[in-house]
Amino acid sequence: MKKLAAYTANHLAVDLGCFTVLFAALRPCLEGGALVSAFLFYNVIAFGLQAPIGALADRRAGRRECFAAVGSAVTALGLAAARLGTALTVSPLLPLAGMAVAALGNAFFHAGAGSAVLRGAAGRIAPAGVFNCAGALGVGLGTYLGSCYPELAFTVSLPLLLVCTLLSESLMGKAGEAAPEQSCRAFSAMLRPVSVGVLLLLLLASAAIHGAVSGFFPRGDFSAGTLVLVPAAMICLGKLLGGFLADRFGSRRVLFACAVVTVPLLFLPRALPVAILFFNMAVPVTQCAAAGALPEDTGFAFGLTKLALLVGTCVTYALAVPGAALTPVLALGVLIALLLTALALRGQGKTNHATNATKENHKEALK
């Protein structure tokens, strides 16, 4: 519980810091295509590098806390560099360098902390939901404060990130001492008995479509001022509830409820926040299912879902769907994304993942 709380707070601080760099440091000094390219470059580093860094963390069993703490510290360094660049106001080079460093720190933190949370979840999906919800809140706050109150954004984000970095460092074991780890094999019980390749294809395709659909979601009245926090709050709440509800009622039932509720609400502009909430309930399920597909390579599995999100997000940069045709496309995307994840799961009712985890850990103890 202590580790989950520390990593959740640090997750909020890391994403708040990164989006403070993007909106308080980069956006004032870049415009047009240069700004879009900078944002895309950030996404490529922050999301694209999580899989290889996660694979490296998997080879350093018991040292995932080091990756999280180093990532948080590197993000703070990038944030400080971007702040210095805005103070000097000479050229965008220093803010750009700060952005690249912060993005690299983001990748290290997520690869280390995300895999550590999954390995400590004891087969429950709720911890993944708790960890992920903080990131959405950090993104929303960074976007709002960085756009409207850039000085305040730096004043809040840098000290918060430094404090959270110290928290993550406190979780690291003594020098030469590896932290004990639990297996993620309990998550394997929620998957169909098919090949790992098929499972990953379904789950990663689902994550990619989720990234594309999220990028195309019309913001409407929720794209400026304090209202920009509304979608962020709904994403946060959706991820948080999704994990707990999946543990209580079963993953496939939650996915079915997401589809039934989200698709009709897409056709009601005023109900968009509720649609965002239900759609994001599937995120912790997909992540835990990926961990179940690669139970010994949790960091790599976590990173693969983020890489798939990046691929889907890049689609939003490349395509421009006319407004009139957008809603049916989004509805179809929601259905396909949720269906792909559901196809990877076993057809059963309420799944007691915690019980499965206890049995799995007991078996390992007897070996």
Q: What spatial form do the alpha-carbon principal axes imply? A: globular
User: Averaging pLDDT over every residue, what do you get?
Assistant: 83
How much helix, percentage-wise, in residues? over 70%
Strand percentage:
under 5%
**How many strands, what sense, and barrel or not for the largest sheet?**
none
Task: Walk me through this protein's architecture.
This protein has helices at residues 2-26, 33-48, 50-58, 64-88, 93-119, 126-148, 150-170, 196-216, 229-249, 251-265, 272-279, 283-293, 298-318, 323-344, 353-366. It has 15 helices and no strands. With 367 residues, the chain is mainly alpha-helical. The chain has a single domain (2-172, 181-353), classed as Up-down Bundle (Growth Hormone, Chain: A).
Topology:
Layout: H1 2-26, H2 33-48, H3 50-58, H4 64-88, H5 93-119, H6 126-148, H7 150-170, H8 196-216, H9 229-249, H10 251-265, H11 272-279, H12 283-293, H13 298-318, H14 323-344, H15 353-366
Summarize the structure.
The chain has 367 residues and is mainly alpha-helical. 76% of the residues lie in helices and 0% in strands.
Features:
single chain, 367 residues, mainly alpha, Growth Hormone, Chain: A, disordered C terminus
